[in-house]
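Q: How would the structure tokens look for this protein?
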Amino acid sequence: MVPRAHDGITLFLGSAARYLRCFEKHPGVYFKTTGWIEGGEADGDLGWLALGKKLGLRQSYEEMVTKCGEENGCHPWQEFGTLARHYGQYTFIEMGIEPDGSFEQASRDEAAKRGRAFEKVAGDIEMIQHLVNDQWDEKEFLVVRPGHPIIAGYDDHIISTDAVTP
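A: Here is the predicted structure in token form.
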């Protein structure tokens, strides 16, 4: 069972439709959640599993040049080392589990430090509840049968599946 989601943020917003509305309104938005902040944005205990860490994308310019040489280290760092430059807004998704306002404030502070707009939106656990409670509507979830790959889609279904050809 796989949620028809653009990414994990869809689950925090409650639906792919709401995610898409948020993205269309602010295509350069960087979403923040309590868990993301609390876990150190993949720099916490499980940071070694993060794709960016494995690919070396969290290295400084100097580390990249030392590892790859001036010519080989410079280009990847320019492309990947400053991914945040593409974001124009930080959006904190409030899920109702926050012990106080510190996570929201941390998001506000980071947005201000980077000169970005800030917005707070209410989260919605409906999609997560449907997943956990076996309420797998075909519009929200994809049932993947053994031997069938998941295929990215560019339509309202987001993902689909097809039988593997022998």
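Helices lie at 8-13, 16-25, 34-38, 51-55, 61-68, 70-80, 102-113, 126-132.

Residues 2-161 form one domain.

Upvote if useful.
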